[in-house]
Specification:
single chain; mainly beta; Thrombin, subunit H; Phage tail protein beta-alpha-beta fold; Elongation Factor Tu (Ef-tu), domain 3; 4 domains; three-stranded mixed β-sheet; 6 helices; globular
């Protein structure tokens, strides 16, 4: 399972996941994993829960002392030929048994979330005296290293470390909610990245990964090279927004105008909608003022950058033909879709669906407009 040339390994355990016993793995019918760029990723494993005359007299297989019971840690590894890739690292949050009236109908459905759930279990009050946003995040994430969660923190572009005599940053929610809010106001993302080894993850806090090496191209309507089908493109003209306003700067003791009329991100399209239709783009008032003009402008810029992706593409990738796991929070090339839509796209979401003989990746891609910024996109594997 699920297809020739592709091997699926499922691991589970109370703290450190280990490979499932072969008889239990044989009962796996399907797996679905929704991997998001900002929201928490979720997964569902569906097992055959049929009861045999001998082993099933007392209970359904997988219910009593189950390795995939509530709060178990789950790992899934896909191996393409000789190249393994950690697909997910998560925690079981729901187990559902559906008895069947006929052979083959009974199912055991195991649902869970990525390991960022561990950061969201407890809400509490804390003070982060004299710490700017970046230092707060580093302090919080350091406590999860013993749970197999490393951290990758990119310093924010502005540092607003307050003096304890002026104000003390406080936290009155879970660690996940706090670091996510700090990411939002800096134009960053906060998310758990599975791997690099089973049972481990890296929590990333930093800017959206809209640069660097792209993933191999999605090929559309290119005969035997085609690996993506069912593509559709939609333009949300109301998505981009520019910001104007003023902030009462505590250092200058005066109202300072703040205006953001352009995105600071590297364009993914030759003709970004926010610039080619600048006169029609929505204008919004500055809402998140910050503590001074510099911080206020940085947060306004973050809001503008977050809004610019007006063109959305959806489609389905044949996972075995593509030959690797397509990841959100990064770039992917596209070819064969025409001059307006070829080029680089940001991957917002991938829904992985695996069953016997099948691996599909339903993708949601976004970018800021039309036209490619490059003459060609990488086609081969980056692994």
């Amino acid at each position: 399972m699920p297809a020739p040339g592709l091997r699926l390994t499922v691991l589970a355990g109370p703290t450190v996941p280990v490979p499932l016993p072969a008889p239990f793995t044989a009962r796996l019918r399907s797996l679905e994993f929704t991997d998001n760029d900002e929201e928490r990723s979720v997964f569902t494993l569906t097992f055959d829960a049929g009861r045999s005359r001998v082993g099933g007299r007392l209970d359904v297989a997988g219910v009593q002392d189950s390795p995939v019971g509530a709060f178990a840690r789950i790992g899934v590894v896909l191996t393409f030929g000789w190249r393994p890739a950690v697909l997910l690292d998560g925690i079981v949050t729901d187990v559902a048994l559906t008895p069947g009236h006929r052979p083959g109908e009974a199912t055991l459905t195991v649902t869970g979330e990525d390991v960022s759930y561990l950061l969201d279990r407890v809400e509490y009050t804390a003070e982060h005296a004299a710490l700017d946003d970046t230092s707060q995040v580093r302090k919080i994430l350091a406590g999860y290293l013993t749970r197999g969660i490393a951290s990758m923190v990119v310093p924010a572009s502005t540092s607003d470390a307050p003096s304890p005599t002026e104000r003390i940053p406080t936290q009155q929610t879970s660690d996940l909610a706090h670091v996510t809010e700090l990411a939002r106001r800096n134009g960053y993302v906060a998310c758990a990245l599975p791997g690099p080894t089973p049972g481990t993850s890296t929590f990333y806090w930093g800017p959206p990964l809209r640069s660097g090496p792209p993933q191999p191209a999605l090929s559309v309507d290119l005969g035997p090279d085609t690996n993506c089908a069912g593509l559709s493109f939609r333009t949300d003209a109301l998505a981009p927004a520019l910001i104007n306003g003023a902030v009462l700067d505590r250092h200058q003791c005066a109202a300072v105008p703040v205006s953001v009329e352009a995105s600071s991100l590297t364009p993914l399209a030759e003709r970004p909608l926010w610039s080619t239709h600048a006169g029609d783009i929505r204008r919004r008032l500055l809402r998140d003022a910050g503590s001074d003009a510099v911080a206020a402008r940085a947060r306004a810029q973050a809001e503008v950058d977050r809004s610019i992706d007006a063109v959305v593409a959806t489609g389905t990738v044949d996972g075995t033909r593509y030959g690797q796991v397509l990841r959100p929070r990064g770039l992917v090339g596209m070819r064969g879709a025409g001059r307006s839509h070829d080029g680089f796209w940001y991957v917002r979401q991938v829904v992985h669906t695996l069953a016997v003989g099948s691996y599909r990746q339903k993708v949601t891609l976004v970018r800021d407009g039309y036209g490619s910024t490059v003459l060609a996109v990488p086609v081969g594997s980056v692994g």
